[in-house]
Amino acid sequence: MTDLLDRLRDVVGDDHVLTAADDVAAYVVDWTGVHAGAALAVVRPGSTDEVAAVVAACHEAGAPVVPQGGNTGLVAGGVPDASGSQVVLSLGRMRTVRDVDPVAGTITVDAGVVLADVQAAAERAGRLFPMSLGSEGSCTIGGNLATNAGGTAVLRYGMTRELVLGLEVVLPDGRVWDGLRGLRKDNTGYDLTQLFVGSEGTLGVITGAVLRLFPATTRHATAWVAVPGVAAAVALLGLAQERAGAHLSTFEIANRQALELVLAHLPGASDPLAEPSDWYVLVELAGTATDDGLDDSLEAILGDAVEADLAIDAAVASSPARRSALWALREGISEAQKVEGATLKQDVTLPIARLADWVDEIGPRVAAALPGVRPVTYGHVGDGNLHYNLSAPASSPASTEGRDGDADLRAAAAHLSTAIYDSVAAANGSISAEHGLGRAKAAAAASYKSEVEVDLMRAVKRALDPDGLMNPGALLPPP
Ligand code: FAD
Ligand code: S2G
Ligand code: ZN
């Protein structure tokens, strides 16, 4: 393999082929700290041509490749396995915004551009790139496309696959597919762009993308609402959709345990309401400069919601600073939960009408399996997507490395996951709403799919990556 490493150094330069343990450490452990692997090397190409040369060299040497963007993925898809045979190909140096066309409503970027930088480039051009995730300061567009990421704007703008018009991809044999046409209408064969979106690095390396831009939303009406429960939240969603129509851009839920984590660990966070509630909703209407009735619309919705016992109380943002403070209560949950130690994350979708019953049904089953475990529940209820993330009991002593109850949580993880997956499948939901499968959920997902569906996915994988070198073990379990 030294020949391969020498070839890779010839392609990207010595400084961008990392092999020393300290140099590769940040690339082989995922954001949760739970999934750690070993790499033959970490390679950091600076252009599509260099990516193509790196992939071709690995293909000839029979070395598996794990594409990596910002390494914020949550299902162990962007870090290598423990074999030490895989080359991590980091897109982190490919950060060029290639073109912005406000009239066509497109922005063309390298895969390594961080999501927040795409948002900023769109804003400078007087437009909006709507995707928004809590990880937007470090996740990359390549990773967003590869995982078909969701986030808080899906309700109005859709998943990543609805935000992309074309891709540039380095195929497993090193050839480059240039699909960066960016046309709204192009009915000339299979939709290859959509095939690569959500493929999690298993079909090729995304090196560039043409993304859609939308009218900038400069007007916002935002509220943090105490609601009696999930059923009330779902009914309030219906009321807001009916009244606000396309202006409804955010509808997120969080339970009291989620808020308490943020209040405990997010500096400056404070509860905007006088009385505690079991459940909360963050709701936001957004519009352009001419939409000047949003505040009245939101006030009317909230007033009718209180009348109908769908809402208990609400804090409406009176300034951009207050708006940011309300958003921080939602966006801060992930980081806050991480402070308290191990988290068993479940990112599930349920039919919206089944959400309330599912939460009521799964709670006692989880509590029976691990008494005192905390079902920190939050997420994109407008999409039917809950983050049902379990933490160790609050009673278990906390230390800098987490809580004593973490070991019990980890020991019960497989049993708890199966109980949760079985109940989601029984409700015709999905065991991965937006985070993808990676290595962590590949086997579980396949077990809930029909043989035909798994065969079809394996046929696609064989057609594009016959040697099985692209991110082996991710998305599909080994055959
Ligand atoms: P990585 O973690 O580097 O990789 C993720 C996957 O994509 C891997 O399988 C990798 O092989 C593949 N990949 C990466 N780059 C490429 C490429 N150029 N070509 C081919 N394959 C590639 N996710 C959501 O959907 N919604 C959320 O609301 C959300 N919130 C989050 C909040 C926090 C605090 C954190 C830590 C994560 C959150 N995530 C969320 C998960 C994560 O941010 C997303 O999955 C994101 O899309 C990953 O991007 P990344 O660049 O970090 O990818
Ligand atoms: C979110 C973040 C990931 C997690 O905040 O919407 O997708 O479960 C999640 O911590
Ligand atoms: Zn999410």
Automatic annotation (TrEMBL):
Top-rank taxon: Bacteria
Gene3D superfamilies, A to Z: 3.30.465.10, 3.30.70.2190, 3.30.70.2740, Uridine Diphospho-n-acetylenolpyruvylglucosamine Reductase, domain 2, Vanillyl-alcohol Oxidase, Chain A, domain 4
Pfam families the UniProt entry points to: FAD-oxidase_C (PF02913), FAD_binding_4 (PF01565)
Cleaved signal peptide residues: none
InterPro entries named in the record: FAD-bd_oxidored_4_C (IPR004113), FAD-bd_PCMH (IPR016166), FAD-bd_PCMH-like_sf (IPR036318), FAD-bd_PCMH_sub1 (IPR016167), FAD-bd_PCMH_sub2 (IPR016169), FAD-linked_Oxase-like_C (IPR016164), FAD-oxidored/transferase_4 (IPR051264), Oxid_FAD_bind_N (IPR006094)
Keywords on record: FAD, Flavoprotein, Oxidoreductase
UniProt domain FAD-binding PCMH-type: residue ranges: 35-216
Similarity comment: family membership: Belongs to the FAD-binding oxidoreductase/transferase type 4 family.
Record's protein name: FAD-binding oxidoreductase
Organism: Nocardioides renjunii
